[in-house]
Amino acid sequence: MSFTVRESGLTALRERLGRLENADLSRLLRDLGGTAVKLVDRGFAESRSPYGNVWAPNTPETIRLKGSSKPLIRTGRLRHSIRAEVRGVSVAIGSPVEYAPAPHLGTNRVPVREYLPMRPGTLPADWRDELLAVAQAWVTAPR
To answer: Which residue from 4, 94, 116, 108 is spatially nearest to 49, judged by alpha carbons?
Structure first.
């Protein structure tokens, strides 16, 4: 098996890479952040972690108090507080809500219900695929 690289293809690639060298990454980072926020929201809708684990169900007492069996959904405050913030050449995803760490990390009264992919060195496959698609679209978009 073989392939041929033509001079015109190399020239086009060189031009594309040259344009990317000085590209403003802020739009890409905003798009990546927006996609990550949508992925977190999907986890809330499906009551599962970014890694695919179903969240622990509410206890009967919690269901009685809040009137719903859906975990982490009472007012929607936490779910709708998830934001993306561009910080230099990175983007941070999180919530300013004071109780945001409790369900994500768990407490002696609240079971762990991860809603952000924070395990060191791992990014869930569906997150990786969707974020890569955003990055690839940005790289190939005309400038």
So the answer is: 116
Q: What's the pTM?
A: 0.83
Domain definitions of the chain by residue range: 24-140
Q: Please, which pLDDT band fits residue 2 given cuts at 50, 70 and 90?
A: very low
- Contacts of residue 44, defined as CB under 8 A and 6 or more positions apart, other chains included, come to 72, 73, 79, 115
DSSP 38-107: HHHHHHHHHTB-TTSPBPPPPPHHHHHHHS--STT-SSSHHHHH-EEEEETTEEEEE---TTTHHHHH--
Sign of CA pseudo-dihedral 44, 85, 132, 28 = positive
Residues 85-100: tens digit of each pLDDT: 998 888 999 999 999 9
- How far the first Cα of the chain sits from its last, in Å, is 35
CB 24 within 8 A of CB 143: no
Angle 26-46/125-140 helices, nearest 10 degrees?
150
Per-residue confidence (pLDDT) for residue 5, from 0 to 100: 46
Element (H, E) at 84: strand 83-87
